[in-house]
Structure formats: C-alpha cells, structure tokens
Amino acid sequence: MEKFAVYEGLVAPLDRANVDTDAIIPKQFLKSIKRSGFGVNLFDAWRFLDVGQPGVPFKKRQPNPDFILNDARYQGASILLGRKNFGCGSSREHAPWALTDYGFKAVIAPSFGEIFFNNSLKNGLLPIVLSETEVDTLFHDVFGFPGFKLTVDLENQRVATMDGQKSFNFDIDPFRKHCLLNGLDDIGLTLQHVDEIKQFEAQHQLNQPWLFS
Amino acid sequence: MLKTLYDKLWDSHVVRMEDDGTALIYIDRHLVHEVTSPQAYEGLRLAQRRPWRADSIVATADHNTPTTDWDKGIEDPVSKLQVDTLDQNIKEYGAKAYFPFLDSRQGIVHVIGPEQGATLPGMTVVCGDSHTSTHGALGCLAHGIGTSEVEHVLASQCLVQKKMKNMLVRVEGRLDAGVSAKDVALALIGKIGTAGGTGYAIEFAGPAIESLSVEGRMTLCNMAIEAGARAGMIAVDQITIDYLKGRTFAPTGDLWDRAVSYWRTLRSDPDAVFDLVVTLDGSALIPQVTWGTSPEMVLDVNGRVPDPDQEKDAEKREGIERALKYMGLEPNTRITDIRIDKVFIGSCTNSRIEDLRTAAKVVAGKRVASNVRLAMVVPGSGLVKAQAEQEGLDKIFVAAGFEWRQPGCSMCLAMNNDRLESGERCASTSNRNFEGRQGAGGRTHLVSPAMAASAAIEGAFVDVRSIMSE
Q1: A119 within 8 A of A86, measured Cβ to Cβ
Q2: β-pairing, B200-205 with B231-233?
Q3: A207: helix, strand or coil
Q4: CA distance A140 to A145
Q5: Which phi-psi region, left, alpha or beta, contains residue B386 (left: φ > 0; alpha: ψ -120 to 50)?
Q6: What is the DSSP letter of B424?
Q7: How near does any CA of chain A get to the CA of B421, in Å?
C-alpha cells in the first residue's frame, strides 16, 4: 500500500446523504476478478446518461452534464466531500477501489458505513469524519470558491484550507494511522503473531472441539 | 462482571489485544462466494501464502448464477469467469464444503450456512458480504468483511478488529398474524435510521423475538446491516438447538451434548449493561412497505408517501424530493394506491422454506393480477427448493401465475439476468431499495413475503391481513 503523507487536492462536493456502495460502483461492474479498472465506472448510474455495461469504452459513454463530477470545475478532484452515512450498504471493496482508481485520496463526511470505512483504510483511501457543522462549512466553501482545495495532514490529523484560515482536526485509530503513514499491510503485521494465533487455536480447539471436527 | 451476548462472543475469540483496544479476533467459519473472493485468493497467491485453515471455509456460487435454463450453464462470459475462478480457487486451496453452481445443495451463502449446520452458536462467522449478519440468529458473532479482510482471514484465520458497542433492541408483545420478522426489521430501521446502528452490535430480544422461528430470526439479523450495524444476534434457546439438531455439519453424540451445554450459556447475563436500548412494541406493528430509496424510507401499509413541503430540515427535504422523483411517486399517495409491475420473492432475507410457505398460503387458489408482468419465486437454496416442491408449493405458485426459479441471489442485486427495467416497480422481499439496486432505473419497494404475495394478487400494495381474513 502506498504511504499516505500530507496531501493537497481539489475538492469535489457530493451533496447527498446515504450514498450507498451500489451507487459508488453498480453491481454489473463487480464481475471483474481484478482490483483495478473500476474508476471509469465510479458513480456510473449518476455520472452517465446511458446504462453502463462492463467493457464499454469511456469515449462511447454519454456523461450526465448535471452530475457534479462531470462539472469542468471539479476535474482532477482528489478529495470527495460527502454527507452522512457515506458508503452504507454492501461490503464490496470495489467501492474504495473505484474511488482510488478514479483518483480520490480522501473522503470527508460526517459519518460512514462501517464496512466501507474499514475497506477504505486498507486501500490507502482516507475516510475523514468531521462534524456536520464543519462539513457544512466545507460545502459552502467548495460551492463558493472555484478551485477550492484542502490540505490533508494525516500525521497531525488535520484538514486545512490552503490559506490556512480554516482547519479542522479529525480522529483516526492510531493503528490505522500507523499503517497508512507507513504503507503497511495488515496481513504481514498479523503474521508476526503466528505463535499466539497457534496457541489460541489449540486452546480454542480444546474448549470447543466441535468447531474443528 | 456481567456480560452481554456480544461481550461473551467477543471475549472468547480475542487472540491478542493492543493497549488501544485493537484486537486480533479468531475466525471459526469463513463463508466464501464468487464476487468478493477472487482478488483475495489472487493476493494470497502473489504472497505465496496458503489458507491457514481450509476446513473453516464453506463456499458457494450465488450472486452470478442464473435462475433459469441451468442446462445452458452461465451464458454471460464475465459472470462465468468469476464462477469458474471460484471453482479453481477452491480446487487449489481446499474447503470444508463447496456447493458449486448446479450442485443440488447450492444456494445463497447465508441460506446454506445455517441449513447445513455449518454456522453454529458461539462461532465467529465472516464472509465478504454485508448480509453475513444473518447468521447471528444462531447466537454467533457474524458480520460482513471486505475483500482485503477475506484475504487476511484466509492467510491468518484472524481479523483485526476493535470491539463494537452493545445495543439491545427489545421487541415487546406479540406480532399480529400477517406481521413478520421483516416488518420488525423495517419498522426498526424506520425508527433508528440506516445509520442508527453504526458502531454497534445489535442484540434482538424480548417476547416477540423469543417466539420467532430461527428463520424469522435470520430475516431480522440479516437486516441489522441495513440499520448500520455490522452484526445482529439473538440468544440461544431451545428453538435454536432444535433447529440445529441433525444438520449435516452440526456435532453429534457426546460432542453434541457438550456443545449444547456450552451454547445454552450464550445469552446476555440478566442486568448486563447495553450502551443503547431501543424498544419496539411488537403488538402495535402492522405490515411495512418502503416508499423511497433507502430502507429507512418506510411506512405502515396504511400510510401515505411523505410530502417534502412538510419537511423543515433542508437536507431531509432534498432527500425526499430526490427519492420521490426516482420512485415516480407523488407526495401524499396512499401506499395502497401504488401499483406494481413485478414481484420478487427471494434473497438472503426471505427465501427460506417458511417464507415460501407464507407466500404460498396467500396466493393459493388466486391469480397474479394482470398488471403484474412478472412474479417470481427464487428459493434460497437447492434444498429449500426441493423441500418446497415436496410440499407442492411450486405448484401453488405456478398455478397462481408465478415463475418458479432455480436458487441464487437473483433480483436482489441483479448481477445475473434477473432485473428490473428502467421505471419498473417491484414488490420485493429483498433488503435494499437503493437506486438501481434491482436494475438501472428500477423502483424497489421492500416488503415481507406475505405482503409481496398479496401485492402480486392485488396488483397493488394491500394490507395482507385483510386478505388473510377473507
């Protein structure tokens, strides 16, 4: 996993609550057996007027001019601003894969679907929880100022405007922060504890042998 | 110390815990399906790792499989590749049990786990599927995980987790005839919202829950995730134990006795403290119908679709307006004036034998209304299908004008050919009414099996209790 350091990026606003993972990446694109290539179908049903099918090249699609990510002013955006319960619904990791493949590095929202939240952290996509009021402020700013950018400083757990006038602190689990900052993958870390796992397993088998029969 | 059921399940699986509460949790059962596993096996392969414990794995193909013309195989090459990839991965890495496409025991992973006795009380159960919460009905800790976590469990038999908070949902009283676990689930989500359970493990308890069958309990736990909670669970009682006895992978002989005496401890201690308690009056519940594009947009069947002009909160008003537009509904429309085009009875929420019996009872001797283009029943598994056929339920459905299909996830998420066309309106026993969930532009109304069956007959939503008393 790529290391996450201080990051500056253009912000795109997605002003609706309960954005579910079916909306982030519709089911017809889940048939791939790869981890990459989902970005072209990010928010497919909202982003395009034609119904998306796997394998149709981007240039043959009809972008929906009313969808925010198709607005010229948000091209190249890498920080997505959302509303509450972003990423609710299914466990598909294709959702963070699609967001990162499109180019997003962070999503800011007042709350997230839990499985999506965890999946994002494992893919170098930083989900940032700010308060409803802070998120409101950011929506106001991003709509008000074309080219609105933010700096995300994971080390100091802070989101700030480029002029430094506004900054917001956010919480993150220390273990997750450590993994993101160092680009560590969970499995390697867990396997440092092989002996403990084996020991637990042996005792567990004694306690509940029917689980191992 | 007094413990909740969740506390007990958690404590018995902690391998190690960091100072900040980050824990390694041991996983007993790993359910695998074709959509969320290929990248995990690929990761395992690239890292030259092997599954830690292949005999913890129970696998099936369910999301992509067709529900008609099984003799033709899987016609969509992309779907076929995904199913073939699962075949190869299981062949290469092994499993305790695999129910591939065309196997007589194949079916929706959350139906076959309990059906086979492969999910048991006291277990930790995971699957790359958010509806893994279903299995909590058996008194186990079960939740969905992402593909990176699927790989993590394959490689280490563990998950990195932090403990969730405890929520108790107490359902008092008795459910009226015609009111089911699905209505309890929808009413709860209507009350606490789709994020109401975020960060919690929900235990369902109270007289109305105790009197539910295990299948009804599965329906309820299945929808815990729709309330935002990754895990839902119900204490073990005699109903649980009777359900499990004699199932293929359930223990036998002395081990059964030992297991049962342990399982009987799997209930919250009296006076155990929950972080949040929500109470519902089961006696007052009436059948529920969703009107919008989130499960929390739900009403009593005698209700009217909301009017955005009456909503003061701007964000909620916009949400209502957007949902009404997508759903093609006018404000203040009576639920019972909403006419439907399709009916889907199936999914990991409601495709078990009791669901089919309930629906069959409603449609017996009647005909699907002429405005309903397609009414389909998709049993949850090959064994559910065989049981239903033995009871003659298939004949009842077919005589009423339903299509009787092969098992699978089908039109719950429309990864196979079963889907809504744009603008089509469906009474569905599934779990998500998100935009496009059942097909691009499709309009989903979530209901119980009895309500879907009665909607098929009337061509519009109707309080099934009025039909039952006829």
Answers
A1: no
A2: parallel
A3: helix
A4: 9
A5: alpha
A6: -
A7: 11
pLDDT tens-digit map of A137-173: 999 999 999 999 999 999 999 999 999 999 999 999 9
With an 8 Å Cβ cutoff, is B2 touching chain A?
Answer: no
Q: Assign B350 to helix, strand or coil.
A: coil
Edge-first strand listing for the sheet containing B57-60: B97-99, B57-60, B29-32, B124-127, B141-144
Q: Between B20, B39, B414, which is nearest A33 by CB?
A: B39
User: Distance between CA atoms of A69 and A176, rounded to whole angstroms?
Assistant: 29
Give whole-number Cα distances, B426 to A60, B168, B441, B460, in Å.
Answer: 31, 32, 11, 10
Within a 10 A sphere around the Cβ of A140, how many other Cβ atoms? Answer: 11
User: In terms of residues, how long is chain B?
Assistant: 470
Give the chain A residue whose CA is nearest to the CA of B55: A212
Is residue B169 within a helix (H) or strand (E), and if so which, with residue range? Answer: strand B165-172
User: Which of A25, A68, A93, A136 to mutate against chain B (most B CBs within 10 Å)?
Assistant: A93
For residue B168, the distance in angstroms to the closest alpha carbon of chain A comes to 19
Q: Do B145 and A91 touch (CB under 8 A)?
A: yes
Helix (H, G, I), strand (E, B) or coil at B417: coil
**Residue B188 token pair:** 């709860």
Q: State the CB neighbour count (10 A cutoff) for residue B257.
A: 11
Residue appearing with tokens 């990791």: A93
In this prediction the ipTM stands at 0.95
Beta pairing, strands A149-153 & A158-161: antiparallel
CB B266 within 8 A of CB B4: no
Q: Which two tokens stand for residue B385?
A: 């299908």
Chain B residues closer than 8 Å to A189 by CB = 160
A84 Cβ under 8 Å from any chain B Cβ? yes
Find, in chain A, the residue whose alpha carbon is nearest to that of B257. A210
Q: Report the pLDDT averaged over residues A33-44.
A: 95
Kind plus residue range of the DSSP H or E element containing B262: helix B253-263
Question: Cβ distance B408 to B416 under 8 Å?
Answer: yes
Q: Which of B403, B387, B396, B395 is closest to B364 using CA atoms? A: B396
Q: Are A209 and B258 an interchain contact pair (Cβ–Cβ within 8 Å)?
A: yes
- For residue A102, what is the enclosing H or E element? helix A94-102
Instruction: Tell me the one-letter amino acid at A205.
Output: Q
Structural tokens at position B319: 């949400």
Adjacent-strand bridge partners of B290: B298
Nearest by CB: B26 against A28, A112, A201: A201
> B85-99, pLDDT tens digit by residue?
999 999 999 999 999
User: What is the distance between the alpha carbons of residues B282 and B207, in angstroms, rounded to a whole number?
Assistant: 9
Cβ–Cβ under 8 Å, residues A43 and A69: yes
Q: Is the predicted pLDDT of residue A58 greater than 80, yes or no?
A: yes
Which of A54, A91, A197 is the closest to B130 by Cβ?
A: A91
